[in-house]
Amino acid sequence: MQSSFTLQATLTSGKLTAPAASPHHITRHALCDRINQSALGRVVLVRGPAGYGKTTLLAQCHNQMQHNAIAIAWLNLDSADNDAIRFLRCLCMALQALSPPNEATLQAPASAATILSPAPRADVLELALAVKAHIAAQTRPFALFLDDFESITERTVLDLVQDLMSDLPHHGSMIIGTRHAPALHLGRLRSRDKLVEIDTAQLCFSPDETARLFSSMSRPLPPADIDQLHRKTEGWIAALWLVSLSLRQHTNVSAFISRFSGTEQSIAEYLAQDVLAGLPDVVRHFLLRTSILKRLSVPLCQWLLPEFPCASLLEKLEGSHLLLSNDSGDSQTYRYHSLFSAYLQAQLRAEAPAEIAALHRRASEWFLNQDRPVPAIDHAIDGGDFERAIELLQAHATHLAADGRMGLLARWFAQIPPATLATQPILQALQVWATCMTRGPSEARLLMDELQIATHTDPAVQRHVRTLHPLLLSMMDHHEQAYDAGMPGIAALQGELSFADTALLNAMANAAAVLGRYQDARRWLDSARRAQGNAASSFNQMYSEAVEGIIDLQEGRIRQAGARFLMAVHATHRDAPGPVGGNAWAGVLYAAWVYETGDLALASRLLTVYVPLGRDVALPDHMILGYVMLSRIAFLKGDAERTFYLLGELEYLGHQRRLPRIAASARVERARVLLLQGHGSAARDELQRAEDDDLWQRVQRLRLPANDLLYPKLGKQRWACYAGLPDDLRWAIRTLEEDTGAALQARRMRRAMKMRLLTAVAYARLEQDDRAHELLIQALQTAITEDLCRVIADEGPAVAALLTQFHSTPAGQRWLTRDAQAIGWLQKYQQLTGLDFTGGATPIKNTVDAILIDPLTAKETRVLALLAEGLSNISIARQLYVSENTVRTHLRNLNIKLQAANRTQAVAQARKAGLL
Fold first, then answer.
1. What gap in Å lies between CA 672 and CA 423, rounded to an integer?
2. What does the pLDDT average to over 72-87?
3. What does the DSSP 8-state code read for residue 206?
4. pLDDT tens digits, residue range 117-163?
5. For residue 1, pLDDT beyond 60
6. Cα Rg for the chain, rounded, in angstroms?
7. Is 549 a residue whose pLDDT tops 70?
8. pTM of the prediction?
9. Closest C-alpha among 45, 126, 58, 138 to residue 95
10. Cβ neighbours of 273 (radius 10 Å)
């Protein structure tokens, strides 16, 4: 029987069409954007096993490219395409889609005899040349999609594809979807930056994508349940989808997720049929018993199963690419996918429950012999051997606490039965420490009362109690009570200091610093540092440097503060890469310094790590600083919606945690944002809502890092300087000059600098330029000396206008020539704000001027130029090869940054700022 191989038949077969979009699929925005932004002139290789969403991702990129007016050719491959003639004919038909309807189509002979019989070489050459000629004739951007490329194994066909890849024009791209690395020569493409690779790790769902998957369910899941599912599946899309199907059958979804470990029937069948089917008994036995291990190596497996040929088994399993994945950090260490591991462990519990305790015991012994107490304790607990776990904790828990391993300790203490822990008061005291540093001081105080460790007479326990009492009070924002409560403990210190004693010195130094008693604070910090020689503790080192850094920050030694915060961040978890190895206490403070210097990218990365930690521990200053910085970064990116969302969340957390300073601080910052947006009346109302005389009078007596520049009175003074009438300006000048004197006397140098800036704006609005410039120079000297930009740039258009005006005056030019560092600082400020000082003076008006508050991106600059030419949105989209939605996003950002209401105003403001 003969078959026709016409274009119509090929189209009907689905070989030339991308899969239809499903409303249940999650759009992979980040991956699609990465591919679309980097694909032209390159080969994109999307590689991963079945169930990782390769084809769905390719289809989404296909749709996005079509929307961006990029020509698309799509070909679904199968094993029959290993015939070169068939492959080229299918490719010819796919490439028809690249030609506009009015152009000649690429024709290929379609007789059954030609296609189904072995073709002579001439036919292959003819078709190959026709394909290459058609690709070379393309004048507009295009993309060729080849899906299911793992089907291609024939060398001739692979060589044809290699040839097409080598001659790919700069405006074309080839996007390949495959289950494994194709037998192509990709090294040269990599070296020429012509290859974009998306692997299994990148194909996995991010936490946000997992959340979006489950948000479409009829009963949305709580965030905690979604996070748990994401961790257990590691973003494996097929597993998540199967879980979402299973959830529909359960009335108590949270309970199912809590016990979910891969044992649900649908997932078990998937794993059993697709993974375990056909494996020899010895391999199955090995898999089940080594599933108790988080990481596998030959020596460990051999210790666990001495009668098995572990080296050869691991080698075979590694080669399968299904059961084990090599750990990226160590070529000799492996692990199971967590879902697969959970399934194996369930099978082990069903088939050989009596062996589990002995397996864990042997694993614990091996790790202890390797001087690795952490996994040794893990296996003791996992095997239910709590006596052994207690024995190991007695030997190692204090050292782990001193190294800041509070989360680890908290997890262990939660797994050990309370009755077992009740016999060990020292471990109970450490449990309070771990609870404090992971779940916050309120819960730690409740636990401390419940365990009644304050009544224990053991001197070692009492040392912990003497420290925990003031520490918890201080973390709950009761600094005065903390200072009083800690003084008896300070008086009792003698002899060699323990971890708890050193922590007491740090806690009291922090309380003294907040109370402005810097002499006491420094004396205790010096004592804490000296103790490090006897009882080294990275936790206490972090604590000491962070507190000293706060004092430096308050007194205007900003560079020194930054250095101390960086030391504090690196003090804990020294094995962690980069500056995210510390904890929330030091990390948020370091991020605050990085933000001040203008490195918003690094600040954002740090805050992404540390703000959730600070929120969980409920540290008031760290929560305020972290959320405020994140909201400001969002505002500078033009995302006002996220700005107000973050401030709303901060206010809610303040109410929830019964910490009024947090809620009121969110309102003060919201007022600042509203004022910068030109909503003076709304800003004034927000400041009134933030008023609380008892609260702010107390705050003014203290030296709280988060509220040094964030309190209602300063907000009102800013409002008067920017939006007030002459009487308001005179009030602002009078009160700001009084407050500046008080700040200088108290050595609150950063606060004094901010006040001088605002006072200068007020004088300029009253046309007293000489006095305005005098104050501005004083503020700038501090900024230049300490490399500060954001504290000035965050004041937005009013200060920018003052700087522009000052720059155009003879006094400003003289100042620049006298101070060698001034020009460098001014260039950095211009880089941060996008401000151009070459356009002359800008008058200070009675309203906030519309001046750029953040530099434009390269794409926004291009959109602005096309906008100035009078092009429509669709014309701009075609010029830039992007969608109209993307253009609208750029226009929205331009309006926010230029403070314009429409396209015409945006162009006018850009011309005014010298951007056009």
1. 54
2. 83
3. P
4. 333 343 555 677 778 888 888 888 999 999 989 889 887 788 789 88
5. no
6. 33
7. yes
8. 0.59
9. 138
10. 9
Tokens 């404090």 belong to residue: 436
Decide if 7-203 and 386-535 have a common fold.
Answer: no
pLDDT at residue number 116:
29
φ/ψ of residue 323, rounded to 5: -90, -35
Helix (H) or strand (E) holding 197: strand 195-198
Tokens 């000629």, residue located? 133
| Tokens encoding 332 | 């000799």
Distance CA 229, CA 222 (A): 11
Question: Which one, of 576, 571, 570, 552, lies nearest residue 562 by Cα?
Answer: 552
Fold of 858-912: Arc Repressor Mutant, subunit A (1.10.10)
Q: What is the DSSP letter of 337?
A: -
Task: Report which of 734, 731, 722 is spatially closest to residue 844, judged by C-alpha positions.
Answer: 722
Superfamily of 7-203 according to CATH: P-loop containing nucleotide triphosphate hydrolases (3.40.50.300)
Q: Residue holding tokens 């004592």?
A: 527
Contact 551, 514 (CB under 8 A): no
- pLDDT (0 to 100) of residue 182: 87
Helices then strands, counting H and E runs in the chain, come out as 50, 7
Strand positions, DSSP E, 543-654: none
pLDDT number for residue 704: 92
Integer CA distances (angstroms), 816 to 315, 754, 759, 760, 795, in order: 68, 21, 21, 18, 22
How far is 178 from 409, CA to CA, in rounded Å?
44
- β 142-147/195-198 pair status: unpaired
Q: What is the pLDDT of residues 345-382, one digit of tens each?
A: 888 998 999 999 999 999 999 999 999 998 999 999 99
If you search the block for the tokens 């040839």, which residue do you land on?
Answer: 163
On the 0-12 / 13-18 / 19+ scale of CB atoms within 10 A, 493 is middle
pLDDT band at 218 (very low <50, low <70, confident <90, very high): low
Average pLDDT over residues 883-899: 80
Query: Is residue 577 predicted with pLDDT exceeding 80?
Result: no
At position 52, the amino acid (one-letter code) is Y
Angle between helices 386-402 and 356-369 (to 10 degrees): 40
**What count of other Cβ atoms lies within 10 Å of the Cβ of residue 677?**
18
Phi–psi pair at 140, nearest 5 degrees: -115, 160
Q: Are 472 and 441 in contact (CB under 8 A)?
A: yes
Average pLDDT over residues 499-523: 91
Q: What is the pLDDT of residue 639?
A: 84
Q: Does domain 386-535 have CATH number 3.40.50.1220?
A: no
Domain ranges of the chain: 7-203, 208-382, 386-535, 537-615, 618-694, 711-849, 858-912
Is the pLDDT at 903 greater than 90? The verdict is: no
CA distance to 74, 182, 211, 240, per residue, from 61 (Å)? 12, 21, 21, 22
pLDDT at 102: 43
Q: Is the pLDDT of residue 32 over 50?
A: yes
Query: What token pair was written down for 422?
Result: 């009740």
For 566, the token pair is 């960086």
Distance (Å, rounded) from C-alpha 311 to C-alpha 295? 14
Amino acid residing at 775: L
- Distance between CA atoms of residues 915 and 433, nearest Å: 55
